[in-house]
Amino acid sequence: MNKRIVCTGLFGLLAAAALGLGGCTNTLKEENAQLRENNAKLETERADLVKTSAAEQAARAEAEGKAAAKEGEIARLQQELAARQAQPPAGPGPSAPYRTGGSTRTILAGDVLFGPGSATLTSGGKKEVDKVIADFKRQHAGDSIVVEGYTDSDPIKKSSFGSNRALSQARAEAVEKYMISKGVSSSRISAVGKGSESPKGTKAASRRVEIVIVDR
What we know:
Helix content: 55-70%
CATH architecture of the largest domain: 2-Layer Sandwich
Structural class: alpha+beta
Distance between the termini: 138 Å
Largest sheet: 5 strands, mixed
Radius of gyration: 47 Å
Order of helices and strands: HEEHHEHEHE
Strand content: 5-15%
Number of domains: 2
Shape: rod-shaped
């Protein structure tokens, strides 16, 4: 009788334990499933963050590239502007004095200063040279002057000069002598003929006299 009771009791305990273990197992399964779900959500969020970060980095790189391109274009335009400002006008008329290196240079059109094939200053040419003389006396009295004569590349035909270089030398000397007659010291001025070297954009612009005031 006692053995039966004991066995019955043991079976009851085992059954209760089995039920308890079954309940714990179900709870663990549910918790594991929840953890897996949470982990999946976190992985998705992390992937989204990685994608967003990559997109932001790409956008930043693109913006920096555009900014660098704009800076390069600005630098190019600034250089082009500086180069243009350093160059005199390309037309046949007289240019305003402009600085280059350690000198001030003024270009006078040969067609204004002289007649075709001539080295005699015209009245209009003298007026243009007078402007340079006035500027020299006002701002560069202690400096030196080099008068450079230039021609176009066409062969000499109707002229007493045998070559373009000879004509350019005679024209430079004509300007030199006129400036001396107007009070420029002969010790501070010289003349040189360059012929057809250093041509400009047109033949008319190539025929010129350049008066170079050299800083002391």
